[in-house]
Amino acid sequence: MLSLRFKKSALAAAIIAPIALFASAAGAADAAAAPAPLKAGTYTVTTPGNNGMVEVTVELTENAIKSVKIGKNVETEYIAKEPMESVAAEIVRTQNLAVDMVSGATQSTGAILTAVGLAIEKAGGRSSDYTHLYVPIDPATLPLADAPATQVLVIGAGATGLAAAAAAADNGAKVIVLEKMPEIGGSTALSKGWVLAAGTKEQAAAGIKDDAKQFAAAWLDEQKRSVKGGLKFYPEKARVEAMAAESAETVAWLEEKTGLKFNKPVVTDLTGTARAHGTADASGRTEIEALGDFCEKKGVAIRTNTTAYELIQGKDGRITGVRAHDGKNRYEFKADAVVLATGGFAQNLERIAAEIPRWAIYTEYSMAAKGSTGDGIVMAEKAGAAPAKDSWMIGLSLKPVYKALEQVIRTDDGFKRELIVNERGERFVREDLPFLADAASEQRTSWFVFDSSDKARTKIVGDYLTFDVAVHGKDIRELARRMGVNADRLEAQVKKFNEDCKKGVDSAFGKDPKYLRAVEKAPFYAVQVRPASGGTMGGVQTNDKFQVLDRKGGVIQGLYAGGEMANRPYYDRYFLAGSSLTIAYTSGRLIGEEAAKAVLKK
């Protein structure tokens, strides 16, 4: 089996630790010199945390951090313990103090970093020697090494890239895949692996009557739930219909080529039709492993830790390869066809701030892979590609600041039975919709409001009560004051909601009556949440063969793009659960087939 390494770090990318506080000016100046030897031994340092002092014991050898142990402290255990231990382990593993602190426990985890830095200084060393801040590599400074030529070169080893590589290789082409991360999989490996499809044998076996036309119609109809402001020509009807028409073939292809087995389809939206196909373990990772194994059997060379940074373009505008580097050498991979499958830009704060500014403050909550920084889009645009118009986020979920509070806001029915209000104390969305993130992104603040009827959830939230992310009150008015919302308005809103619950009719948004649950039993609670994304709708413009188009509408020969690199035509501003992998696998499969035909002149 193809070896995959998936990172399981508890660290959340938040704020780079201020390590410079440790280093003296002299130490900073000598950072490029050989590391100063340490006096081996065990050093105990006490440094301020969030609630008080934190004792940290650091064991050092002459040239390494051997262990970091957390001692006496008064930090809140259920909030800080795991993040502090994770940061300590990461310091030892990487021998680096430039470790991300954990959002929600920044002061507690920052205390660990400070303590280790001070211990190194006590041992006669320089903390700067163990502070390796990320410095972008200039590939031009790296030596040029030999790179093999290929017929089809795929950039990105997620669902789209692996599907393209598999299809191209299966059709006789020689294929190389470049992946900048240490592992393959991208955002797909983090997902549940749902693939929307219609007219499949799985549906037939389950007695589900469905076809591509019904699927496309439902897809287009669901887009009517989009938040306002999108361009009127999205989604593109013909592209959605074409995607729906290929969906059953994509599921059959995955099963035939990789041996994957999809279970009975389930319903993931409000259309009422079961179209979401998933594996027994509901894991995108399983699908990635299967595709990776198939690629390996077909002779596809997958090079991880290799970052593509520039397309090679001939005088006639044709793409003839890619420039890449692995941090040690740079390479020029020549190819007859290049496939951009690098995903979206959900982890690129600068680009989000420029294109979708309302989402900029929520990048920390993205569920997309860390490698989703829009590299392929940048490369394509530099080569003359036309960017997609009106980029948007794939709004997936709502997240509290503390992970443990997810148990409080998400019940067996997801968010469907909840009462959600904004900073004005007003409901703003129908809570039983599959996705609420887009609506929440339009609010300044969003709160889940509930009562004391569920003892399990009130016990959990009781441990996290603060005056910013989780509050309680003996009555709704006290709750409102602690939330920072208008008490009269929230009281009136809850009263109206409770009346609707008794009548069994949601007069404001039309929520399904079976999900109406009154908020009546004191004391009352509220948990603040933020919208979380799963990717982006954007990329570059392509034709129906996924060939990349230039700014005049012409084809850039030799260049293809699929998945999130070319998904804008399929949506307005509303995501459809499972559609992302339908687009990824289908576009990848079709690109692979088309590219192989082109390079082999079939």
Walk me through this protein's architecture:
The protein is 30% helix and 19% strand. It is built from 16 helices and 18 strands. The protein is α+β, with helices and mostly antiparallel strands. The protein is globular. The chain has helices spanning 25-29, 77-94, 106-122, 159-170, 201-205, 212-222, 237-258, 284-297, 349-355, 375-382, 406-409, 437-441, 455-462, 476-483, 487-503, 579-600, and strands spanning 41-48, 53-60, 65-73, 150-155, 175-178, 195-196, 276-277, 301-303, 307-313, 319-325, 330-340, 392-400, 419-422, 446-450, 470-473, 524-537, 547-549, 555-561. The chain folds into 3 domains: 19-130, Sufe protein. Chain: A, CATH 3.90.1010.20; 150-193 and 276-391 and 538-600, FAD/NAD(P)-binding domain (3-Layer(bba) Sandwich), CATH 3.50.50; 395-532, Alpha-Beta Complex (Flavocytochrome C3, Chain A, domain 1), CATH 3.90.700. The strands form 4 sheets. Strands 4, 5, 8, 9, 10, 11, 17 and 18 form an 8-stranded mixed sheet that branches. Strands 12, 13, 14, 15 and 16 form a 5-stranded antiparallel sheet that branches. Strands 1-2-3 form a 3-stranded antiparallel sheet. Residues 49-123 form the FMN-binding domain.
Question: Which terms summarize this structure?
Answer:
602 residues; 30% helix; 18 strands; FAD/NAD(P)-binding domain; alpha+beta; 16 helices; Flavocytochrome C3, Chain A, domain 1; globular; Sufe protein. Chain: A
